[in-house]
Model the fold of this input.
Amino acid sequence: MAVPQIRIGSVATKLPGPPVDNARLGTFFRASGVFEQWVDTFIGTRTRHLSMDLDTGEVRFCLADLAEEAGRKAMKAAGLAPGDIDLVIMSTSMPDTLLPTTVNVVADRLGIDGVASYQLQSGCTGAMQAMDIAHQMLLTGRHRTALVIGGEMCAKHIDLDLDFGKLSPGELVNTVLFGDGAGAAVLTAEAMPGTAVLHRVLVQCVGHGKAPGQIVEWFGMGDREKKRSALYEDFKAIEENVPLLSAEALKELLDGQGWRAFDVAWLLPPQLSARMTDRIVSHLALPQAQEISCVAETGNTANALPFFQLERALPRMKAGDRAVAVAVESSKWIKSGFALEMA
Done:
């Protein structure tokens, strides 16, 4: 029996609210123009979208709102009804609640029922992990069409009373890197002309013996008053490790497909920040590849970012074009990516 080709039938995304630029964020933190200059120089992210209204503190969207809209748009773009979906997988590092899982809330809103559903707790490689599981499950033949979702909602980590001047560098960087958003893709074993074939998804945990590069606490009723930061990031360790892990992931993907560097027409690189992305792209050295990046406009939306990249890349790809995506998670060091080809 022939192994089916798994295709990306459609991709859609959702951002909340208007973009928040660095000047506005500096005002929010009651910081001087030095803040805006620092972000522009060292981070490179110009805007991000937030679910919280910074003027009022009102949280206007939850993660399920964003994921529902992205999922609905993806299903519509693929011409699918709820009954056509027989597998739903969602990845996020910031679910609305621990229980019920956000994936099941979203499936309920979309009218999807009686199917397998899974939610993954992960960061910047979460979308790759969700796609990997969907890809493998579709290859078994037990499922035909999957809705894969990734998203983040940072409102629980926004403190309107934050004193910018008292933040450590490891805490400060988190205030400017991240934004809210969700993305969704339809993966299918059905023949869909003019769609991209997802050849392979790579996910490898490589954190043995390494300290976490990022820590995000989940405070419960018993420990919410403890004097420790909810967020911490070792940006120096990330700067050192992410380019190397990205190159390793790229090599494994290319070798696994028998592709050479100049065979790749499109590169979807890691999207931690705009400045970091520039360094990684130079390190990867794909001479013919066009870069697809969005982090400077969207901020780092972690689990949602590969969907934003795919949404930009797929309409521009011609038959025979090959694309490689790479993502690295610093929390306990995961390298990941996927290889696809336009049919």
